[in-house]
Amino acid sequence: MQIILNMNKTDEVITVMVVDDQQLVIDGLFALFIRETKISMVAGVNSGYEAIEILRNQSVNVVLSDIKMPGMSGIELTKKIKASFPHTQVLALTTHDENSLILRMIEAGAAGYLLKRADFSELCNAIISLGSGNKYLSYDVQSIIMKNIYHPQSKILQMQPKAIKLSKRETEILNLIAQEYNNEEIAKKLFISKRTVETHRRNIFAKTKTKTIVGLIKYSLENGLIKHDIAFSVD
Prior knowledge:
Layout: E1 2-4, E2 14-19, H1 23-33, E3 39-45, H2 48-57, E4 62-65, H3 74-84, E5 89-94, H4 99-108, E6 112-115, H5 120-131, E7 136-137, H6 139-149, H7 168-178, H8 183-190, H9 194-208, H10 213-222
């Protein structure tokens, strides 16, 4: 079932689309959002395919997506949204608190992750955060990530005890990467060229033998390369 509520909202309002295979969730959220002045739910759909069709015709600021849905998962939907509609942010809104799903959603491009047991005020805060270009991981989600990072069976903890060493400049760049600065911003902040940043970035990934930002941050936390209060910093 597809619900299109209002396609003519102003830019001052954060527009939201809910993607959930449970219609009751969509109806319930609409009843709550209708009272909000800063957030407007403009559509609610039951599948990722319907969500893509909406986005082809309507600009939406934030998509609230469940993860396990028939046909197209929230992870696959997130990848498609970030590939075709990069300015639309995705907030995972789900009951699933498995660490693997959290990390897969983040790697797919989700800017936030919130469990459905959260209250409505936290959901609104998360949406406003994403609508402002920031990230949002609930306290519960951050705890799950950190708990699993330091689990005794972590593959990274089973690596050789002596962690790799980064140069002072590489350490500076790594900390800025963890704070989500892009190459151009890092270059300006450190007064070096963008090409130099790219070279250091490649060296950091090579030394840590990681391929993604999430993998890099995870390795860096476990090996003391960055501080805990820097990684996964969210509003």
